[in-house]
């Protein structure tokens, strides 16, 4: 399979910079993932949906006895949507998604936000649900993230051709070399 020059350079160039949890989560699922451009109208619409979902998540947590500690706290190359504290001192970090259903890519992304504090719980939340991630799951995702980073750096041409179709990531992928890319499917 022929890989275009720009596609084969996308993965190692992205790895040289710090990968955001959003992109790294998708690359863990499919190393050939290349993010599609996002138009301004879609970005504004998504920001509005995200803001409404954040309000629902805050409201639900406050009703359950949590105290909001921070909103959009910045990390190294990312930001954590919400941070709550329970009365007993436990911290809950919540990655908020506006999606109706929480998918594997959402859980992976949330796991990548963990700072591995002993009194921390990581959840991925939407307007109706909070899914807590186990320490074991978070550690496994960290191992997969490191293996993915190494693969992208050491074998960039192989990575960009390692197609793993997945409904969680394909709809936002711009890798037109992929035999599963939506443009090829529409041509069939």
What can you see in these coordinates?
This protein is of the alpha+beta class and 188 residues long. It has one domain (5-187). It contains seven helices and five strands; from the N terminus they run αααβββαββααα. It has helices spanning 5-16, 21-29, 40-63, 104-112, 135-154, 156-159, 182-187, and strands at residues 67-74, 79-85, 91-96, 120-125, 130-133. Strands 1-2-3-4-5 form a five-stranded mixed β-sheet, sandwiched between helices. Helix 2 (21-29) packs across helix 5. It is globular. The two termini are 19 Å apart. Residues 1-9 have low confidence and may be disordered.
Task: Name the descriptors.
188 residues; alpha+beta; 5-stranded mixed sheet; 16% strand; globular; disordered N terminus
What is the topology?
Blueprint: H1 5-16, H2 21-29, H3 40-63, E1 67-74, E2 79-85, E3 91-96, H4 104-112, E4 120-125, E5 130-133, H5 135-154, H6 156-159, H7 182-187
Parallel strand pairs: 3-4
Antiparallel strand pairs: 1-2, 2-3, 4-5
Helix pairs in contact: 1-5, 2-4, 2-5
Quick one: how many beta strands?
5
> Percent helix among the residues?
40-55%
Helix and strand composition category: alpha+beta
How much is the radius of gyration in Å? Answer: 18 Å
Number of helices: 7
Order of helices and strands: HHHEEEHEEHHH
Average pLDDT, all residues: 85
Give the terminus-to-terminus CA distance: 19 Å
